[in-house]
């Protein structure tokens, strides 16, 4: 199956670089509403059989124009909400953002037990996202499914589950509002990323290494990307 992992439109918290992850969260800015309205045209070539959004308001507002244009329902699922910032909620300082980034990108690197203070650990976060993907994969009619989710959740899940996306690539490459990551596969066979925000992601070779391009870079050291890269969506 083909998954379209879509970050929602711009919010006021995005403008302030706040770690805004709690339910129900803010709505969209005027620009965010225009981004949402542009989604049906941007995805005109995709035969979308099912559409999901998280329990946060901003994803539902982003999904609404696409749902109306395709005459399909939006399935609301908590599993694809943003990664919980816990005690770092609504902070925008460099220390908090760096702590958030280094923790959540430690999960796809293998440290699933690492936890943000007051937040979830990697096992919990990936399991809830996996559960929604597994639901979406049920039924042969779901050839292409769109999931409107959040920046950190999409980046971390893709790094953990797509065989050709390294932690380094996902940590260093943000996803703009209404940016799309396209993956293909099944929960049983695994996933391959086809594109990241419109850029082709190289396939994995027989040796298990991405065939050139940024997705094949080595894992980073302790510093996972710049703290100015706003992690949440």
UniProtKB/TrEMBL annotation:
Query: Where do transmembrane segments lie in this chain?
Result: none
Tell me the InterPro entries matching this sequence.
His_Pase_superF_clade-1, His_PPase_superfam, PG/BPGM_mutase_AS, PGM_Phosphatase
A Pfam short name: His_Phos_1
Under PROSITE patterns, the record lists:
PG_MUTASE (PS00175)
Q: Does the keyword ATP-binding apply?
A: no
- One term of GO molecular function: isomerase activity
What highest taxon heads this organism's lineage? Bacteria
Q: Looking at the record, which segments are called Disordered?
A: 210-233
Sorted UniProt keywords? Isomerase
Protein name per Swiss-Prot or TrEMBL: Isomerase
Tell me the organism. Streptomyces badius
């Amino acid at each position: 199956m083909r998954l379209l992992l879509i970050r929602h439109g711009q919010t006021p918290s995005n403008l302030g670089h706040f770690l805004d992850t709690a339910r129900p969260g803010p709505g969209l800015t005027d620009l965010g509403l225009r981004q949402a309205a542009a989604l049906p045209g941007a995805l005109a070539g995709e035969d979308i059989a099912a559409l999901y959004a998280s329990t946060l308001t901003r994803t539902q507002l982003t999904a609404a124009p696409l749902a109306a244009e395709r005459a399909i329902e939006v399935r609301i699922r908590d599993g694809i909400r943003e990664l919980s910032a816990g005690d770092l909620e609504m902070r925008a300082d460099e220390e908090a953002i760096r702590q958030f980034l280094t923790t959540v990108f430690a999960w796809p690197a293998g440290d699933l037990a690492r936890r943000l203070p007051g937040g979830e650990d990697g096992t919990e976060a990936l399991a809830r996202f996996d559960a929604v993907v597994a639901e979406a994969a049920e039924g042969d009619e779901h050839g292409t499914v769109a999931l409107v989710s959040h920046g950190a959740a999409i980046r971390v899940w893709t790094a953990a589950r797509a065989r050709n996306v390294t932690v380094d690539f996902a940590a260093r490459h943000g996803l703009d509002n209404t940016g799309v990551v396209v993956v293909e596969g099944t929960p049983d066979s695994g996933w391959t990323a086809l594109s990241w925000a419109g850029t082709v992601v190289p396939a994995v070779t027989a040796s298990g290494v991405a065939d050139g391009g940024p997705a094949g870079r080595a894992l980073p050291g302790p510093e996972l990307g710049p703290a100015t890269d706003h992690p949440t969506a």
